[in-house]
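Incident log entry.

Two folding requests arrived from the same account within the same minute. Monitoring flagged them as a possible duplicate submission, but the sequences differ. Recording both here for audit purposes.

Request one:
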Amino acid sequence: MITKTYEPGSGIGKTGQTLREFGERQNVMNQKLNEQYEALHMRCEVLAEHLGDALARIAELEAALTALQKEQELNIRRFSRCAADLDRAEAEIDRLRLTSKLNTNAIDRLTKGGAPEEDDAEET
């Protein structure tokens, strides 16, 4: 980038001298502004590179998060199936307990009901 905007030339009297001083100050300011611009430009390039790296990392994390969400959904479905199986098993155990209790009571009734008849048979 061209930073020199003033080229010294001849002028008339004090006007020439003042113009020359102003031009030289302007050239110095242009040089400083150019240096700042270059530094900012380099910083922007570095930041753009960091931004690219950050975006790539974000994409990786999003992919990992999606995979974890799918795995979690699968685990929830598996857990739901296990819970349903457990509910069915508990219901079956309750049914078997009731059946066993009813059978035991029936056997007791039959046994107790049959015993007095045997006692009556022995007395005769």
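Request two (distinct sequence, not a duplicate):
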Amino acid sequence: MKLNSTELTAKLLTANWTREQDIYLIENNHLPIEQLCEQLKFSAEHIQARRKVLGLMTRSKQLRKLW
């Protein structure tokens, strides 16, 4: 399986996430990025990359279309 540079960057940025942190991010994806940074102790870039890996970015876009 060949990864493009965006996928590779996302994988590298999210390599140190625990299951508990993933769960917190999934359950609290609606919170502002600043609050997530404070709670999870990751930079905004890391959180955005992890959201992308978990499919939360696509989910948010789809939900916005429904509203």
